[in-house]
Q: What sequence folds into this?
């Protein structure tokens, strides 16, 4: 019976008389080469694509983008220290979010999302240090800084929503 309901919904959703509106978005892409090693930055003009809705994929993409940035940094002692710290917190964002998805309770979810918030905010700090020290081109850091800020905002919103769902006597202190 459940299978029939699903198939009826599919028939309604994909009925040939209902044609989806065609939306065409075009991007012009040009590569800008900077004098910092092998750093190639893509600059897009036109409307920006919508961010990924799946947070697990988004946090993984963020970590991979940070890894790509780290590869372009100079091989000096200070750059290596900043790179190591940034890599640790960037990869920790995705790992902690993955743990939050498997939380056994709402309180545990709130705790793990608090770690996601802290690590994403720490990424903002290390990216700010990289940009202000001039060790990486600003064009490479700005989108990563924006993504880290958005991850912080998403974590905060998730925590607030989860706290609202807790009974009044179980709500953690703010």
A:
């Amino acid at each position: 019976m459940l299978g029939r309901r699903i198939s009826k919904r599919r028939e309604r959703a994909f009925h040939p008389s209902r044609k989806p509106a065609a939306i065409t978005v075009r991007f012009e892409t040009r590569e800008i080469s900077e004098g910092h090693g092998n750093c190639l930055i893509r600059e897009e003009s036109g409307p920006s694509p919508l961010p990924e809705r799946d947070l697990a994929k988004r946090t993984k993409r963020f970590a991979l983008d940070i890894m790509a940035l780290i590869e372009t940094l100079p091989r000096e002692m200070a750059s290596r220290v900043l790179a190591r710290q940034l890599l640790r917190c960037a990869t920790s964002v995705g790992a902690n979010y993955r743990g939050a998805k498997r939380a056994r309770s709402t309180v545990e979810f709130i705790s793990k999302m608090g770690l996601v918030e802290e690590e994403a905010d720490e990424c903002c700090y290390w990216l700010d240090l990289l940009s202000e020290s001039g060790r990486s081109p600003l064009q490479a850091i700005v989108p990563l800084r924006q993504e880290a800020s958005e991850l912080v905002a998403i974590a905060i919103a998730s925590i607030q929503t989860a706290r609202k769902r807790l009974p009044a006597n179980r709500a953690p202190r703010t």
In short: Helices lie at 2-13, 55-71, 77-101, 106-133, 138-165. The longest strand covers residues 28-33. The longest helix spans residues 106-133.
